[in-house]
Specification:
The protein is built from no helices and 6 strands. With 108 residues, the protein is mainly β. It is found in: Membrane.
Amino acid sequence: MLNCGKTSTEWPISGGNQFSGTIPGELGNLTKLVKLHLASNRFTGSLPITLARLVNLERLWISDNKFSGTIPAYIGKWSRLRKLSLHASGLKGPFPDAVACLENLIDL
């Protein structure tokens, strides 16, 4: 349950809900977010540039969706990132070079 009176570090969506549509840019305002699990839904469109502000993110799961576009370069700036799941996400292209510098990344 989301409690807007407290600071939450985990997004209250879990995978497999068949949510659809685009990811709202306002999600980037949750700058204390540590985990974001959006896998196994029907999300479309590109990842909003505002997600670049999620610098505390440690885990991102966006696999099994219908995104379009390329893997955003800003992922390479998430220095705390430990787990990144992008398979079957719909995103195309090579990983940004900066991803190789993510020293905490242990699961790709």
